Amino acid sequence: MPIGNVNHHSPAGINPAEHTEGAETSSSGAVKPNWPTENWMHCGGRGAGPEAIRHAVLHNMQEIHQHLSTLRQQNWSAGSMEAVFDTALLPTMIQAEKAHNPENTVIFHDDIFDELGEIDTEQTRQVLMQTPQMFHYVAADIREMNGRRSVIILDSLADNPRNSIYDNPEVKDSLMSSLFPEDKVAVLCMNMQKSFYECQIFALNATTKMAKHADFMDDLHQLNLQGSDKLAERIGAGNVRALRRMVVLDAPQSLPAQFIKHAQTRSSLAQASLDIPVNKSGQTLQQRQDEKMVERTKIRTSEGQSQLQTLNFSASIEDKRLTYLERAIKYMETASASEVNALAERFNFLGKNKMIAGLASQPRVVGPAEQMNQRLMQQSGRVADGEQNSLFNQIQATIERLHES
Questions:
Q1: Rounded distance between C-alpha atoms, residue 214 and residue 131, angstroms
Q2: Cα–Cα dist 359/3, whole Å
Q3: CA-CA 20 to 30 A from 23: which of 34, 72, 228, 314?
């Protein structure tokens, strides 16, 4: 769902200005992506040696990077196809991030609650997890203290009781069966993400922040085991909901500024300390958001009437996606053959998946005003609700098969 509507639980060193080739704009205002194209390489095949497979994998990663850079340079938001890219690349980006930040011990799990009880806290702290019930990605930090387990989940979205995964009966049942009675789970809904397709990047970034602020996280775990009231007071939560074995805390305002430096809207920073540096260059939270602020347009349809809506938000998370991909490309230059082959299999699955061509032809929801106005004039900018739901189902099915490959 586009920025501006937060009812979302769905599948996210090079100058973007230097990579403007390879993406055209059609008469409907839709960016024609670089992929699939004749430049996409099959990774392997009969007789292909290890270096040939690595070459093809790196080539395709560069193709994706060029495509994402072009979208950023031309002021388009990510869409369904980029969500598929994120999923294909996520295991590789995780390994690259662990190599870049050794203190980050992040591992990936397919189901956030079914597998919590199986995670060895002696080996890991940060976990990036998928929530299959609503197809969303979150980060978790796990501690074992005095025989009790504390789990703190960072969710990039705001809490929405009308459409919350944490109210899902299947989630609650899984949680009850995976943890001991004295264990505690706290969900911190960060209210940073307003877009549909960046949750994987937000979640990966959250694991890095939790690793870098391990002492702060230790304090939160101590408070979590003592009780939700103390934890809510410490993080400045705006709202607290107790849901059987977990507590959901909305819009925490007392986290280190680095945790929210990729927040997409100004309202997300309303109570934050805006004058604290959040990166190596010394930028404050406010300065970074000002620098990354973009203006894009979407077509809003209500009661049969369509009109343009201007959106202003930070594209910082889009640049972070590019950074993670650049690190992944560098990592894959020397990665083990097994890691290269695993990504090659995911790429080959996408290359032969007929649905990808359909994703490539979908009109983009958020982009430059001129092109969106052109689409509005042609009355081609709105996808019917039924078609949109069908598209999301196809995306989810494709991504689920990617995880299985």
A1: 24
A2: 19
A3: 314
Bridging pattern class, strands 126-131 and 136-145 = antiparallel
Query: What single letter denotes the amino acid at residue 181?
Result: P
User: Angle, to 10 degrees, between the axis of helix 316-332 and the axis of helix 199-212?
Assistant: 80
Q: Whose CA is closest to 108, among 11, 200, 182, 213?
A: 200
HSE value, Cβ hemisphere, 13 Å, CA-based, for 378: 14
Identify whether the C-beta of residue 90 lies closer than 8 Å to the C-beta of residue 404: no
The residue whose two tokens read 């081609």 is 380
- Which residue, 14, 15, 21, is CA-closest to 39? 21
DSSP 3-state helix, strand, coil percentages of the chain (rounded to 5)? 45, 20, 35
Instruction: Report the alpha-carbon distance of residue 326 to residue 334 in Å, rounded.
Output: 14
> Distance between CA 368 and CA 205 in Å, rounded?
27
3-state secondary structure of 199: helix
**pTM as predicted:** 0.86
pLDDT tens track for 92-139: 999 999 999 999 999 998 887 778 888 888 888 999 988 877 778 999
Q: What is the pLDDT of residues 197-251, one digit of tens each?
A: 899 999 999 999 999 999 999 999 999 999 888 899 888 887 888 887 789 998 7
Strand (E) or helix (H) holding 51:
helix 50-73
Residue at 349: amino acid letter: F
- Residue 311 phi/psi, 5-degree rounding, is -120, 135
Q: What is the DSSP string of 312-325?
A: EEE-HHHHHHHHHH
Q: Which tokens belong to 312?
A: 């202003």
Tokens 């920073």 — which residue? 269
Instruction: Confirm if 158 and 146 have CB atoms less than 8 A apart.
Output: no
Written as six digits, the tokens of 71 are: 């979208």
Task: Give dist(CA 277, CA 45) in Å, integer.
Answer: 49
Nearest one of 347, 363, 403 to 62, comparing CA atoms: 347
Which residue in this structure is represented by tokens 């996520």? 90
> For residue 94, with 0-12 CB atoms within 10 Å meaning exposed, 13-18 middle and 19 or more buried, which class applies?
buried
Domain locations in the chain as residue ranges = 35-404
Q: Is the peptide bond before 36 cis (omega within 30 degrees of 0)?
A: yes
User: What phi and psi values does residue 262 have, to the nearest 5 degrees?
Assistant: -100, 10
